[in-house]
Amino acid sequence: MAKFSLSRYDTQARVSLGLALLSVVCLLGLAVLIFQHLDLSQWVITYGRFRRLAVMGTTAGTILIAAIAFGMGLNSAGQRRNDKPLFSWLGFFISAAVICLALVLFFLFSTRGEMYNM
Questions:
Q1: Has residue 20 been placed in a domain?
Q2: Distance between terminal CA atoms of the chain?
């Protein structure tokens, strides 16, 4: 069998953890995009058209990457042929946390955001 095959559960565990860590990096980028223009005196996030599109795209990408990692971690976690179950569980829980935090950040952006005229 090929060394890198996604049908193997240990490979799925490694890929799940790698994608989960990549989604954490994307989540940090999303947080920077949102909190960069946070006005604490009025508790408002100001944005332009392109920042709104960047936040929406980054949110979608983060959730997509984390959802793939979540599914792979869940699929490979309890398999007998998986010799790296810790990687599966880490990928599963990290990606679940990233999905929740990305949704919270997007909700914050959509409720507290105000568009300014360019």
A1: yes
A2: 57
Number of compact structural domains in the chain: 1
Cα 118 to its chain centre, rounded Å, is 30
Closest alpha carbon to 107 in 66, 41, 48, 63: 63
The answer to whether residue 39 sits within a structural domain is: yes
Ordered per-residue pLDDT tens for the chain, 118 residues: 567 777 788 889 999 999 999 999 999 999 999 999 888 898 899 888 899 999 999 999 999 999 999 999 999 988 888 888 899 999 999 999 999 999 999 999 999 988 876 5
Contact (CB, 8 A) for 91 and 19: yes
Exposed (0-12), middle (13-18) or buried (19+): which is 95, by Cβ within 10 Å?
buried
Domain range for residue 94? 9-115
